[in-house]
Amino acid sequence: MKEIILIKNGELALKGLNRSNFEDILIKNLRRRLKQIGEVEVRKAQSTIYVEPKSEDFDFENALEQVSLIFGIAAFSRALVCEKEINDILTRSVEYLKATLENVKTFKVEAKRADKHFPLTSPEICRELGGKILAAYPHLKVDVHNPDRTVFVEIRDYAAYVHAEQIQGAGGLPVGTAGIASILISGGIDSPVAAWTMAKRGLKLNAIHFASPPYTSARAEMKVRTLLSKVARYSSSINLAIVPFTEIQDQIAEHCPEEYFTLIMRRMMMRISERLAAKSGSLALITGESLGQVASQTLPALVATDSVVNIPVLRPLIGMDKEEIITISRKIDAFETSILPYDDCCTVFTPKHPKTRPTLSLCEEAEKNLPIEELIEKAINETEYSYIY
Ligand code: ATP
Ligand code: MG
Fold first, then answer.
1. What is the dihedral of CA 17, 19, 21, 22, to 10 degrees?
2. Which atom of ligand 1 is nearest to the CA of 183?
């Protein structure tokens, strides 16, 4: 029995002239992901993408799982491949549909004939297959208006395809269609969710992590890598920059008033990230900030953080509650890792009374003794790069 995966792309349908470009990127993403499973042909025809295994031992279940993670896919189904010949369609479909028809009471058949040379019309195909199914599974009735299950028969260029259950895809837009942006990733709950949310809108991700050994441990860095690998299951590989942050924190602690520690730290992160973004082709930064969640995420604090950079800062979680964020975190299997209790650089230097309503001039005053430019250059020179798959 030969099966393929039929893919309907989601919002792509709306994209007019860009559509073909979007489809090509989606196909590239599919090929890249699926070639790890085995030899496979991916092609498009009539607004459907066909994924056809070419090797005997192709792990079909794994392929379905991978397809379910790829952005830009609204729905997909596994389908039986038949000869374009009615008897072959009838006999093999009845057996193939057994599992999906066993647990329902009503069904209907819908037929589509892309190949008009096929000798039977669509209503004739429906009647023939409907009759066969009724004979084989006497518990079933036909309901054309509101069936429990719809069986689709598609007569296409090379073959006929039969399928009955659509699986929901990951939605969104294909990664790579929206450009590149850099996610500032900590070990927490929020930033991996922010990364996933923007990858879903078609952004290719780079990542930046600020590490402060020995205040932060090697395990904390591993945690960040694990979180990024969870995101990479959806977004594909991520280029990670690890920036040494210890000296900057020490200098902040030495030269700045305590109530400004977090804010100045965040301003330093933004300054460095802007420069790393320029080097890596990123057009924007992404953070996991959510309005009012902590002292450094009040509106005045966000304004003070933004004011040191010109690059746009995307904050996809800005209007979300923690519960909403956690729901996504669980869905992408990041939550259990995020709550592992390793310190990150922010928890180490948290002031007792953080400034919640900073003004720009007060921030500038507070960091006036910090050798900002020198620290930035040194941190960038010592940044280490790796790939997360
Ligand atoms: P998260 O759950 O993502 O850690 P948070 O609520 O703990 O977020 P903060 O620690 O204030 O918030 O950080 C806000 C944002 O700043 C994070 O979402 C992340 O984008 C960025 N950030 C914080 N710490 C780091 C770090 N060590 N390296 C890179 N980015 C960081
Ligand atoms: Mg954090």
1. 150
2. 20
